[in-house]
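Kindly go through one protein, given below as sequence and tokens. The question is how this chain folds according to its tokens.

***
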Amino acid sequence: MATVNTAWDHVSGNIFKTYLIMFFFSLFTIGVIYVIAQGFGYGETGGLGIVGFALIMAGIMNFASYYWSDKIVLGISGAKELKHDQNKEIYHLVENLCIAAGLPTPKIYIIEDTAPNAFATGRDPKHSAIALTSGIIQKLSKQELEGVIAHELSHVGNRDTLLMSVVSILVGTIALLADFFMRSMFFGGHNDRESRGNQFMVIIAIVAAILAPIVAILIQLAISRKREFLADASSVLLTRYPGGLASALQKISADREPLEAANRGTAHLYIVNPLKGKDAKQWLAGLFNTHPPIEARLKALREMEGLK
């Protein structure tokens, strides 16, 4: 019982931190769009109109991402669907965990690569999929695989794919507007902009256009790291055995073979960064990591076991 209570503490804590970050990220996005609109010379009403238009466009892009991102990711990764008779043990392992989690059984995919790793995708629990490399099936024990699969199912249950799609679109919206503004300043009537708008706001908009995309990416990565902690804790609630996931994380991170199917665009989806050798240790460099340090994840899992 103590293990479950501790795991719930980690789950609730990470959910709160994610929502808090998302709240400030939303305010940040609206503020950046408004400042850039002012830099273009729009007034108060026009600035709010630009904010509304940008958010509507972001919503449309979210809609497209919501429906097709899973197919794109699976295609890029070279994943092939696993049928029941091809590997009954894996199929039943996923089914049993889904019953415990109250989730529909997702489609299961295999990536033919000896590097051990896994990810989950899909717009909602009814349209979800988990992908396992052939290497993770070969190199991990049943208890370790159970921890990994429970982690990925937790991403499905927590709607992490949808959340990260929304975050990615917001980051992209900021980057596009910032780039468009800077291009317009250099190539599209700089003097006309100055005559129409407040010169001080133009300067503020330039600073925002330079810094905002970097800040947005840092926030995106911070949210990604929090969702990994949340999935770890949720996995423990399913398996009641933190040691299985902890051992799996150690084995996956210790395996130095890079995953050939992964790239920087899909790396954040995997349970451990598949671009081996890219994890930064320094605090400042660590802000740009898609995953929390393995040491921090193992420490949290040990706390769930009641170990110090």
